[in-house]
UniProtKB/TrEMBL annotation:
GO BP of this protein: cell surface receptor protein tyrosine kinase signaling pathway
Keyword Nucleotide-binding attached: yes
Enzyme class of the recorded protein, top EC level: transferase
Cross-referenced SUPFAM superfamilies: Growth factor receptor domain, L domain-like
Catalysed conversion reaction: L-tyrosyl-[protein] + ATP = O-phospho-L-tyrosyl-[protein] + ADP + H(+)
Protein name from the UniProt record: receptor protein-tyrosine kinase
Amino acid sequence: MQHRNTACTNFNDSGACVTQCPQPFVYNPTTFQLEHSPRAKYTYGAFCVKKCPHNFVVDHNSCVRACPSNKMEVEENRIKMCIPCTDICPKACDGIGTASLQAAQTVDSNNIDKFVNCTKINGNLVFLITGIKGDVYHNIEALDPEKLSVFRTVREITGFLNIQSWPDNMTDLSVFSNLVTIGGRALYSGISLLVLKQQGISSLQLQSLREISAGNVHIAENSQLCYYNTVNWTRLFRAANQKVLVRNNRSPQDCSRDPHEQRPACVQAQGCWESWTRPVPFCRYFSVEAEDLCGYLQCYEG
């Protein structure tokens, strides 16, 4: 064994060179179980330490600068540690016009990769024609529609969602199908959800949306859009002064003539985000009791 004042090949444990630091668990052959070891130490660089520096995170028995991609950081008893994620690991990302994207005006081909694996957007998401179609003046290429799938992991937008341009071959907003909350901490002319003049969108497909915390909803001039009229938007609101402006979209009468759009029970009772899919997570005039055999939420009067 090498001792103090000698460079260790692996780790230095209080002057003694060891192949690994004392592990946090030891096997008890009597109980056939792993038990916490009072001798446990953490790997910190080339040293074994009793506790990690306060600005580092504990990952098993190591002191790390950041948790790996399959774990998230939590704090227990004033100790920061990495624990495995049960689902998608939470990841907060800057929104358009915020921090690292302060100069950006829209989601585009230059910044779309910054949203990979994001579950929370601190700020806003904005989609303008210069981002979707490209901006020759600023040497920005058109956005590959497939790349918009990065937003499927997003569950919260703290600011607003502004859609004034969308790919021609995408007929819905299903990339936001896991979006739960629009916070409205920042607003666009008083609006937290804007879908404007998108002639290719036929359904919203925001079926996970539970809350619009502040700001108004403005959905207008979308000539093919259906189901907007079946959603009880006020149930999503958290403030009495929030308003809904929905106008000049496809008429409910035209929508009802389309054989793919005819689900009277859904449309009249509880509202849908699209045809043949999970409807709004609450009923418009009824209460949710169970799922029926088709996998849709079923409504019961009451």
